[in-house]
Each structure stands twice: as structure tokens, then as C-alpha cells.
């Protein structure tokens, strides 16, 4: 299994919040040694909500699984010197830094490269000029909050998922691996910069939002409807709500067969003079299609809908709360091999996911996040070669913290 992982790779992470910690955790979940450096009181995100009743951050625990935690007083010159040594420590598979803090001072690439000429550093920025930006300020600029929400709603609607942070985190891991591959091939390091703003703008281009406006078209709000094909939410006889999708031709035909609306669809095609085998025509006729499906849904309870849909291979889903997901959905349980229970320090037993990737149907196991400073002594002794006496001197000076 080691041949399919990043075992042997060592990266240092200096970060906070979502994108950079997610990038580092992705590497850690793939087997790399990821050393997170924090100040004496933890990082900016050490108490980030959601938290337990005792104040332990479930956010921090969730985004630092499998890492090693080193705590150094980086407000003092001697502490920053120690952190620089750790970042640039020797080893052909080391010398990799991931951060979303400004690349200046002790995190300045040119300064660090004096210590190690083949250093790889990936710096996540807010905007492309290095200014401050987060997911919740980038997204409003893109226009998406004016496309989200009910059709007749007049104010912007933000969503709770930090999409650009998540994509940026995954791209950071890819960027580091790409730079490491170049170093392996050519022996050179480099400073890679990745702006949250640019990630969001790139996705807007990839998905056609920009070209759509360039072509003179302006997209409106469509509520829960799937744009460009047929997809809509319906209420069942027992009040349960489901989402039904007919995006591909196979999905569309499965839906028609399951609900026995074939005759109605053919009559609709004749009346409109179109073929509803075309996904765009299904979108234009979404109200008429929904009128055919609504009575069928309203006459059946969720379990009846489930039985029919699953027997016909319909693409659909039940709307459920996070509580229902955890309590009732087997995909979010030990029935899914991605999950296992881990003992998270300060939290207790937590249902925890491993990385979703499967290598020959084998998964790397889920691991808990470390306690703050749990690895300070081991890392400084192993990576920097400090003696116990040297470590004790630094600890007594208040430069280090151990769990």
C-alpha cells in the first residue's frame, strides 16, 4: 500500500482556517508527514466554531487529522529561527512549506531559500495582489448570491458551504505535488502562489458563467430547479421532500418510466413542438413536466417513492437534516468503509472520514488530529537533531509548548 501513498514526504504547514489546513490534511491523509507549526496559544483557528461544551474546536480537529503538532513561540526571534530551521531541514523529500500567511519576515521565500536552495513554498493568498479576502467576501463579487434562492426573492442569498476555500485547499495539495515532481526531475525549488480570488474566477470561467454573460445572456434565479435540464424538488404524501434529476438522457428516461408519465410527455412534446430528449428543452418545459410529476409524488409516501425509484435507477435524493444524515443514513456510518471511530483528544469518540480516494479498493485509515504541541519534542529531536539537553534549555526559556 505504501507505493500508492506519499509516505516519506515531509511538509511543514503554517496556517489557519480552511484552505491551507485542508491542503495539508490532504497530504497527511495520503501518508505524508505534515508538521503544523503554531504559536504558544494555538493558531487563529484553534477555537473556531463549532465547539464542544468544553470549548474544544471541532473545526480544528476536523481539518488537522493525521498531522503532527509543534508549538513554538514564533513571536520571539529565537522561536522564529527554530521554525525556519524546521521548514528548511535537510532531506530529499522535505523542504516543503504550505502557508496562507503573508510571505514576509520569517516566512519570506527568498530568506528561507538562503537556508535551502531547493525549497518549495506554496502561499495561499486572498486576492491576487496579496490583499485580504475570504470565501464569504469572494463569493458576493462573483454574482452567485443573486442567482441563489427563490425566484421572487429580491436580496442576495449566501450559501453556507465555503466552496472556494475547499477547491483552493485541494488545489494547494496538487500544486505542492506538481512542484515536488519538478524538483525531483530538475532539482529546483520554487515559490507557488495561489489566490482564493483566482480560484473562484477560474471556476466561473470553467463553468461557462463568464462566457454566458459575454454572449449577451443573463441568468436569473431558478430556486431549486436544476439549470439547463430537468431537476426539481417535490413533496411526498407524508411530507418528505425529495430532489429528482433528469440531467442525462438515461436519467430522464428512467424518471419517465418510473413515474409512468410517458404518454403525458409525448403529448407535451407534440403540443410544444420539441423533443424532451434534449436537456435544454426539458429545462424550458420544466413547469409543464413538474405538473405531470407532482400528482404522482403527492400520492406516495417516501418509502414507496424510494422503492420505485431505486428499482428503475432514477437519480434522486431525499432532503434530510445533518441530524438525520448521521442518525439514519448508512452512507454516513461504519457501513461505509471510509468512516471509522477515532478517539479525538478533548472531544471523545468521533465518527471520522478517511480520504475518499481508494487505491485498489484499499483505504488509508482515518487518524485523529493531534493535541496542540503533542509532537513538539519528538519532531525537534528527530528532524533537527536536538539533544534532550538542548530541548530542555529551549523549553525552560518558554519557547516551546508540549501537550
Structure description:
With 403 residues, this protein is α/β, with parallel strands linked by helices. Helices cover 39% and strands 15% of the residues. It has two domains: 2-204 and 341-401, Crotonobetainyl-coa:carnitine coa-transferase, domain 1 (Rossmann fold); 241-318, no CATH class. Strand 1 (10-14), helix 1 (19-29) and strand 2 form a beta-alpha-beta unit.
| SSE class | alpha/beta
Choose one word for the global shape: elongated
Task: Give the overall pLDDT as a whole number.
Answer: 96
Number of helices: 16
CATH superfamily of the largest domain: Crotonobetainyl-coa:carnitine coa-transferase, domain 1
According to CATH, what is the class of the largest domain?
A: Alpha Beta
List the strand order in the largest sheet. 6-5-4-1-2-3-12
For the biggest sheet, the summary is: 7 strands, mixed
Count of distinct strands:
12
User: Which residue ranges are poorly predicted, with pLDDT under 50 across at least 5 consecutive positions?
Assistant: none
Radius of gyration (CA) equals 26 Å
> What is the succession of H and E elements?
EHEHEHEHEHHEHHEEHHHHHEHEEHHE
Number of domains: 2
What fold name goes in the CATH topology slot of the largest domain?
Answer: Rossmann fold
What is the multimeric organization of the chains shown? single chain
Percent of residues in β-strands: 15-25%
- Give the CATH architecture of the largest domain: 3-Layer(aba) Sandwich
Distance between the termini: 31 Å
Relative helix content: 25-40%
